[in-house]
């Protein structure tokens, strides 16, 4: 009978503790998952490749926007558009735009044209994150509306150089990209 009582006690004891055992097991699993997720998050947050990719994306976004800005101009909002040109640029390009602003504004007012640009695609072709320099290739469609209402569309590819200034990427040079078999010379 002693043996039957012991077996009964073992069965009764193991049956009365399944909830705490299950809670302990779930706590251990949750703790393990939290540790794994935390370690994974830490690695991702301190990954140099992720930081480089973020700078590449920032340079591309800024480059596309700056090229679009410099190809958009409305004679009715000339001051605002030219201010946007200047805020999108730095270096020699910025100096060229500011020094020729008055003459250029007079030409646009006289022509009464409206040009709007839309980015079709873009890519970062070079990035030196440490030096704060990047190059982008941007394909865009520029629509020019003349004073008489006639519209023309022109697709072009632009090469832009960007410089990081005060934590922001700005356009420091802009030129037409060679098309087809032409050399960049």
Provide mean pLDDT, rounded.
88
The unreliable regions are: none
Radius of gyration, rounded?
31 Å
The helix/strand class is: alpha+beta
Major pleated sheet: 5 strands, antiparallel
What's the overall geometry? elongated
Helix content: 40-55%
Strand line-up of the largest beta sheet:
1-2-3-4-5
Kindly, what is the distance between the CA atoms of the first and last residues, rounded to a whole number of angstroms? 103 Å
The total of beta strands comes to 5
Order of helices and strands: HHHEHHHEEEE
Range of strand content: 25-35%
Structure annotation, total helices:
6
Structure report:
The chain is an alpha+beta fold and 185 residues long. The chain contains six helices and five strands. It has helices spanning 2-16, 18-45, 48-70, 78-87, 91-99, 101-111; strands at residues 73-74, 114-128, 133-145, 151-165, 168-176. It has a five-stranded antiparallel beta sheet with strand order 1-2-3-4-5. A hairpin with a 4-residue loop joins strand 2 (114-128) and strand 3 (133-145). The chain starts with a helix and ends in a 9-residue tail after the last strand. The model has no long low-confidence stretch (mean pLDDT 88).
């Amino acid at each position: 009978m002693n043996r039957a009582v012991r077996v009964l006690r073992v069965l009764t004891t193991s049956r009365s503790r399944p909830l705490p055992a299950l809670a302990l097991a779930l706590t251990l699993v949750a703790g393990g998952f939290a540790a794994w997720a935390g370690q994974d998050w830490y690695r991702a947050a301190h990954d140099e490749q992720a930081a480089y990719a973020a700078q590449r994306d920032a340079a591309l976004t800024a480059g596309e926007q700056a090229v679009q800005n410099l190809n958009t101009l409305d004679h009715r909002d000339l001051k605002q558009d030219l201010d946007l040109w200047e805020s999108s640029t730095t270096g020699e390009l910025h100096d060229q735009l500011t020094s020729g602003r008055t003459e250029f504004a007079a030409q646009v007012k006289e022509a009464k044209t409206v040009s709007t640009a839309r980015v079709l695609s873009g890519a970062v072709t070079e990035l030196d994150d440490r030096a704060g320099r990047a190059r982008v290739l941007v394909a865009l469609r520029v629509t020019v509306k003349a004073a008489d209402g006639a519209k023309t569309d022109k697709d072009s590819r632009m090469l832009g150089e960007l410089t990081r200034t005060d934590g922001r990427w700005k356009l420091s040079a802009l030129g037409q990209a060679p098309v087809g078999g032409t050399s960049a010379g």
